């Protein structure tokens, strides 16, 4: 165990979220340790003495935890039974297994939110293709099928209608986990409300953002969501804070929502870790989501989530035609010194998130143009 004045936060998973947590931890005087699947993963490149082990093996998790004051996560894929075993052995796990299960299992999440009276799309667990098609027929002829565990960035999600071939509807049921059917929501845009909560119940809410999606992948975040009334924004934050409190979340909670065509808010997904929709806060907020996550899991006072400027725009850099990124990186920096480029240290392949760019100010149209130009140039979509 570490010196009590300089705690060690152990992060399970060596991805970009753990990597982006490192600068915040350094500034706080907190040491991070990371359990990574390999030495070349994003976080293992920048965090001292990474532990290379199996993130889903209980013995490896137990061994890793011995040198940490608290465990938290880069992802939600640790088996729930291992989290329970860690807690039974006295390991401090934040968020805890009971809370995290609601981000790991969409069926559990939907059932609990419904019990709490929080508005969600109509849904039910379906047994087979016939049941799924029957659900679609009951909800306007269309439905969304999701594997209850393991999906991300559009994976594990299928859109069907009553004309979809039976063979295609069979696909989700081959994953070996329950399948959740949801109504296909008519919405005007997708929103995200990110909050942080500490063990003793202090909580803060970041500005509600608009999340622009393509093919199930977030490509752009606008903070705050433009054209939103203060009452609507406060309601979205209230919902997120209520979920965090009711589920006992410790750390960052991102609540992804639909703003429906008839003006309602429906909860779509939950994430209990720093989230893509909060990356804008590194440059655009007084306290980033990464710093507040570290503060929360250590039960330190939380930092102000306020925005630094009227608007911040973040655009994800997805792998494209360019494999040699560095020359494009230099060009973007020289062309627009106000653009911040964050690189994840990952190999480039088409569609993979390899970094993001952020810019903030008061002219939203200009900010969006600048952010997209930078991301498109690095991707190789434009050459000037």
Mean pLDDT: 95
User: Ranges with pLDDT <50 over ≥5 residues?
Assistant: none
The proportion of strand residues reads 25-35%
SS-based structural class? alpha+beta
> How are helices and strands ordered from N to C?
EHEEHEHHHEHEEHEEEEEHEEHHEHEEH
The count of DSSP E runs of length 2 or more, i.e. the number of strands, is 17
Specify the helix fraction band.
25-40%
Straight-line N-to-C gap: 53 Å
Identify the quaternary structure here: single chain
Q: Work out the radius of gyration.
A: 21 Å
Please tag this protein with its features.
alpha+beta, 384 residues, four-stranded parallel β-sheet, 12 helices
Describe it.
The chain has 384 residues and is α+β, with helices and mostly antiparallel strands. It is built from 12 helices and 17 strands. It has helices at 16-28, 58-65, 80-88, 97-104, 106-115, 129-138, 166-170, 230-247, 281-284, 289-297, 326-335, 364-379, and strands spanning 8-12, 31-36, 51-52, 70-73, 123-126, 142-147, 157-161, 179-183, 187-197, 203-205, 209-214, 217-223, 251-260, 265-271, 311-318, 340-343, 353-361. The strands form 3 sheets. Strands 9, 10, 11, 12, 13, 14, 15, 16 and 17 form a 9-stranded antiparallel β-sheet that branches. Strand 11 (209-214) and strand 12 form a beta hairpin. The protein is globular. The termini are far apart. The mean pLDDT is 95.
